[in-house]
């Protein structure tokens, strides 16, 4: 269990949520394992299939405490909330700002600032940790270039210009991404990002990691009452979770990219975990996906100190923390959305 900004996260599986007076009681294997006063909570998020009592759901609905149910892997299932106006007001504000390109740019630039900042510090850590195995001068030059772009992004008020700056930063980051692969370099190499379909082992893994991160982020956004399909940087497109793609920009490098690199460099995966189709698409085998998913779930349990909140949380709760912060900004509780800037 974990408290985060007045939200209770029940991350253990097979935990039943029940009501006792004005308290939520957590029961596992017919034993009470936790008890929390409900007057301190704004929402509850449960990862599991066991469920909650009708009495608890009714109590929370009457008091505008939402209960979100996610699968153990983090996929959003449902959200229970009473007949309050809060969720409607939040989404109306989201839709209103999304229609305003200037307002959208002012929000979206925070996502991109964090993405570029996090990429920069990934490169800086490589120069510190592996100076004899990489081109330090090349890494430093690109790091300085990313530093020079950040002030432009901070002031950018045009979505097209913002996308151009983000693309420029991504091209430079990708120039040295392959050098961060330190093991199995004959079988794992990176020249450029390829998708639909991925054309090499690394791109196959990156695509899978981004899909998982997008799903986790969409679930986090839905859990706080936001519409994961209405974004600010990524515009509306049927079937695309645009806001999830916006928020996950901050986490692509420090979460997904670093995860993929660790699987390669620690030799968790090897060349036998991939196969190529006739059209050139490189795919992961069923066994490789299972290894990948197991490692992904383990990664989500690793603890970090959130750079803005200062709280010790798991990596798996980072998208949820950012979703809460974004909702608070849209409600007017924060002057600006604080992106995830990891160093």
Automatic annotation (TrEMBL):
GO terms for molecular function: DNA binding; DNA endonuclease activity; hydrolase activity; metal ion binding. One of its GO terms (biological process) is maintenance of CRISPR repeat elements. Its EC number is 3.1.-.-. It holds the Pfam family Cas_Cas1. InterPro entries: Cas1, CRISPR-assoc_Cas1, CRISPR-assoc_Cas1_DVULG. It is an enzyme of class 3 (hydrolase). Its cofactor is Mg(2+); Mn(2+). PANTHER family: CRISPR-ASSOCIATED ENDONUCLEASE CAS1 1. NCBIfam families: cas1 (TIGR00287), cas1_DVULG (TIGR03640). Homodimer, forms a heterotetramer with a Cas2 homodimer. Belongs to the CRISPR-associated endonuclease Cas1 family. This is CRISPR-associated endonuclease Cas1. It comes from Paenibacillus solanacearum. The lineage of its organism: Bacteria, Bacillati, Bacillota, Bacilli, Bacillales.
């Amino acid at each position: 269990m974990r408290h985060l900004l007045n939200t209770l996260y029940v991350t253990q599986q097979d935990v039943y949520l029940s009501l006792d007076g004005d308290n939520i009681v957590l029961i596992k294997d017919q034993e009470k394992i936790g008890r929390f006063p409900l007057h301190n909570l704004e929402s509850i998020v449960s990862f599991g299939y066991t469920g909650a009592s009708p009495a608890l759901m009714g109590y929370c609905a009457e008091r505008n405490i939402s209960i979100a149910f996610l699968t153990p892997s983090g996929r959003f299932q449902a959200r229970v909330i009473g007949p309050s106006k809060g969720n409607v007001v939040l989404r109306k504000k989201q839709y209103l700002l999304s229609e305003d390109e200037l307002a959208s740019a002012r929000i979206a630039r925070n996502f991109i600032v964090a993405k570029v900042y996090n990429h920069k510090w990934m490169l800086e850590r490589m120069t510190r940790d592996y100076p004899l195995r990489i081109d330090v001068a090349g890494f430093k030059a690109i790091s300085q270039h990313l530093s020079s772009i950040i002030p432009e992004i901070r002031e950018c008020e045009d979505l097209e210009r913002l996308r151009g700056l983000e693309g420029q930063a991504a091209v430079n980051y990708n120039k040295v991404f392959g050098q961060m692969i330190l093991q199995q370099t004959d079988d794992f190499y990176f020249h450029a990002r390829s998708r639909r379909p991925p054309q090499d082992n690394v791109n196959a893994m990156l695509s899978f990691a981004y899909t998982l991160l997008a799903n986790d982020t969409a679930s986090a956004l839905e859990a706080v009452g936001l519409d994961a399909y209405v974004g600010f940087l990524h515009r509306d497109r049927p079937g695309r979770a645009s806001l999830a793609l916006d928020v996950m920009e901050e986490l692509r490098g420090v979460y997904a990219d670093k995860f993929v690199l660790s699987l390669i460099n620690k030799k968790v995966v090897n060349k036998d975990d991939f196969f190529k189709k006739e059209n050139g698409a490189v795919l992961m085998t069923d066994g490789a996906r299972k290894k990948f998913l197991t490692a992904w779930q383990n990664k989500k349990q690793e603890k970090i100190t959130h750079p803005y909140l200062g709280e010790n949380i798991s990596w798996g709760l980072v998208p949820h923390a950012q979703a809460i912060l974004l909702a608070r900004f849209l409600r007017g509780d924060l002057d600006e959305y604080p992106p995830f800037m990891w160093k």
